[in-house]
Design a protein that fits this description.
Layout (H helix, E strand, L loop, with lengths): L2 H4 L5 H16 L4 H8 L3 H8 L7 H11 L3 H4 L5
Helix pairs in contact: 3-4, 3-5
């Protein structure tokens, strides 16, 4: 089995959430770098979240919500 075959499939929710995250960032006229800095994370990881290429831990969800100045509930409120 190759390394690529062992990769875990990303759930559809993560892909849709990534689209929502990107739309929210653009709506607030913020760059990836600005949100990443405010959240204390690497911009490359934030891009992966936005593209739905990486799952996010709950602690990271909280940090990103804080960077936007909203609650995690508000961040997760989008049409799925």
């Amino acid at each position: 089995m190759s390394k690529r075959e062992r990769k875990k499939e990303i759930p559809a929710f993560c892909i849709e959430f990534g689209k929502h995250l990107r739309a929210l960032r653009i709506k607030n006229d913020l760059s990836v770098e600005e949100i990443a800095f405010k959240a204390g994370i690497d911009a490359q990881n934030l891009r992966k979240y936005e593209l739905g290429k990486q799952e996010m831990k709950i602690s990271m969800l909280k940090r990103i919500a804080d960077a936007f100045g909203i609650t995690t509930s508000e961040l997760l409120s989008f049409d799925k």
